[in-house]
Amino acid sequence: RKEVEQDPGPFNVPEGATVAFNCTYSNSASQSFFWYRQDCRKEPKLLMSVYSSGNEDGRFTAQLNRASQYISLLIRDSKLSDSATYLCVVNKALETGTASKLTFGTGTRLQVTL
Amino acid sequence: EPEVTQTPSHQVTQMGQEVILRCVPISNHLYFYWYRQILGQKVEFLVSFYNNEISEKSEIFDDQFSVERPDGSNFTLKIRSTKLEDSAMYFCASRPGTGVSYEQYFGPGTRLTVT
């Protein structure tokens, strides 16, 4: 089983639509969860951290279900500029204060059209 | 806003040659990382660095790879004898040492092409 699994898409949606991405992770010891955004041939950029209580940042809402090892991202009122690949990322700290690596999913590609 | 910077943006080298990829992490960050992304594939962890030593390394990070923080600002990745399969985007990342956030911030990457 992949450590972080995402539907690769592409998701083609019209401007203004609501779109949801899902992600599952295999390591129950994972402690921190993120959504990153990656434009073509660019670096991953942090979109938002994901907290157990769920969190919202403008048009973006992230949810975490630790029991199901499931993370989601909801984008409301999608814009052309939201077109990108959305990366589900998890982190398992080795110990407090250690460097801790990020584990990436393959990403879900979103194309927003007029 | 502080950023991670990387040089060069694109490096072309012949198989068997040594390359050094350079990174300047965000100035008050204490943890440093290298990741790579082969075209069309996911981002993969290579190595993490803290307190002037390697904290963790992946299976990819074999004896051909080394990292160094030669001064207070630069963080380098050296590939001793490049192979065709080393062609990829190499991203440097850093994160603060304070608080409990594990958010990492990525540089723009170096595209390495091995011919």
Report on this structure.
The complex is a heterodimer of chains A (114) and B (115). The model of chain A has no long low-confidence stretch (mean pLDDT 92). Chain A contains no helices and eleven strands. In chain A, strand 7 and strand 8 form a beta hairpin. With 114 residues, chain A is mainly beta. In chain A, strands 2, 4, 5, 9, 10 and 11 form a six-stranded mixed sheet that branches. Chain B is mostly beta strands. Chain B is 0% helix and 51% strand. Chain B has no helices and eleven strands. In chain B, strands 2, 4, 5, 6, 9, 10 and 11 form a seven-stranded mixed sheet that branches. A four-stranded antiparallel sheet of chain B has the order 1-3-8-7, with no helix packed on it. In chain B, strand 7 and strand 8 form a beta hairpin. The mean pLDDT of chain B is 94. The interface between A and B is medium-sized, with 26 and 29 residues.
Uncertain parts of chain A: none
Classify the helix fraction of chain A into a percent range: under 10%
Summarize model confidence as the mean pLDDT of chain A.
Answer: 92
Shape of chain A: globular
Mean pLDDT of chain B: 94
Strand proportion of chain B, as a percent range, falls in: over 45%
Which oligomeric form is depicted? heterodimer
Radius of gyration of chain A: 14 Å
Q: In this structure, how is the largest beta sheet of chain A organized?
A: 6 strands, mixed
Give the H and E element order of chain A: EEEEEEEEEEE
Q: Beta-strand percentage of chain A?
A: over 45%
**Structure annotation, total helices of chain A:** 0
Strand and helix order of chain B: EEEEEEEEEEE
